Amino acid sequence: ISFILTRLLSCLLLQAAVMLLLSKGERMCPASCRCEGKIVYCESGIFQDIPENITTGCQGLSLRYNNLLVLLPYQFAHLNQLIWLYLDHNSINTIDALAFHGVRRLKELILSSNKINYLQNNTFSAIPNLRNLDLSYNQLQYLQPGHFYGLRKLQNLHLRSNGLKQIFIRTFLECRSLEFLDLGYNRLRSLTRTTFLGLFKLKELHLEHNQFSRINFFIFPRLTNLQALYLQWNRIRSINQGVPWTWQKLQKLDLSGNEIQMLDPAVFQCMPNLQILNLESNKLSSVPVEAVAAWTSVTTISLAGNAWDCSPSICPLMRWLKTIRDSKDISMICSSPKSVQGERVVDAVRNHTTSLITLTSTIKESTPMNTMSPTSPEAPTFIPELQFEHMAFHKIIAGSVALFLSVSLILLVIYVSWRRYPNTMRQLQQHSVNHKRRKKSRKQEQDLNSQLQEYYLSYHSNSETMDSLVNEPRPCTCTISGSIECEV
């Protein structure tokens, strides 16, 4: 009996211990937070400090969308099992140099969308296993080498939209494993040859939406593994290579939205494996033949939004575009000469080629073989310059439609006026009839007046006639103009 009681008592104690542990585990999830195993989500927007009672075995902590202001020394030291920490979308403006001491296992740290304007040296040196660091959408203006000291395993670094003005030399020297670097949407004006020193494994570099006016690719001499370079929407007017060296792995280059007027063939001769090239929205009028010849591996190209000169010099480019599958040339518009302004480059080149073929065949048919001068067998044939005015089919259609619509509108106005205002239309008709009658009566009066002549009286005065008129009655004859005769 004592044995049975002993076993029963031990079972009750075990159950009580289990219940105590379970209740303790429940209490380890802070209020207003959500816990899923070893992951804690405190994103309610009410926290101004790190919540208490977070279990020490926590591996993931999200404090996004709160009101954190300052990160104090050893703030996360009790969470030494943390693997990722999200602190974005707060109001953090100050980070102590010892804030991340004690979380050596941390691999991902998100600090984006805060108000950080200054970083102390060695801020991240206590987390050497960090793989992903996001500092985008803050207020950093300068980067120094000490900011990223000790981050030799870092692979992704986000610094977008900080208002960066300057990057000091050897800033990324410790980031030997970096593969992705985003410096877009800042205020960078220039770079030096030592800016990217040490980034031997970098594959993708973002420099878009900065303030570069020219780019010398000699500033990237050691980025031997770079595969994608983004330089769109700067103020770049010229690009050049400087000292030639080969980018063996560069596959994508984006230069759209700049002010480039001329392409340097040497730049593309150093990129033998370039596959995707974007040159949209620049000021290009032509592309040198040498540059086109260097695009041996390009499979996707964008050339729209430039001021293309549709003279015969553009023919090599158009011939090359026909050889690639993804040629986004449908939006290429002619800017000059005036005869083809606004037309697509493809149509202008096709019409020009057709005109030349027609002209050549016409000249050959009209010129007999034996009309060559025997005294000058090698005299060159002179082909006069003819100006061809091409009218596209869509212009004819548009004109016809406009004419049809105009006539229809006039007829519609007349019909509506006749239906809605019949009295007015009858008055107009009566007025027109009266006007015609008045005009006809005036014409008849003018014809009658032209037929009447001025009457006049002709007579001869002599003595005999006068005596006869006084002394004795005799018949006399007078003649009145208008063939009227009377006897007296």
Automatic annotation (TrEMBL):
GO cellular component: plasma membrane
Cited InterPro entries: Leu-rich_rpt, Leu-rich_rpt_typical-subtyp, LRR_dom_sf, LRR_TM_domain-containing
Keyword Isomerase: no
SMART domains reported for this sequence: LRR_TYP (SM00369)
Alphabetized UniProt keyword annotations: Glycoprotein, Leucine-rich repeat, Membrane, Repeat, Signal, Transmembrane, Transmembrane helix
Signal peptide: 1-25
Keyword Nucleus among record annotations: no
Pfam families: LRR_8
Lineage: superkingdom: Eukaryota
Entries under SUPFAM superfamilies matching the protein: L domain-like
Transmembrane segment boundaries: 396-418
Stored PANTHER family: ANTIGEN BSP, PUTATIVE-RELATED (PTHR24369), LEUCINE-RICH REPEAT TRANSMEMBRANE NEURONAL 2 (PTHR24369:SF209)
The name this protein goes by in its record: Leucine rich repeat transmembrane neuronal 4 like 2
Native source organism of the sequence: Sphaeramia orbicularis
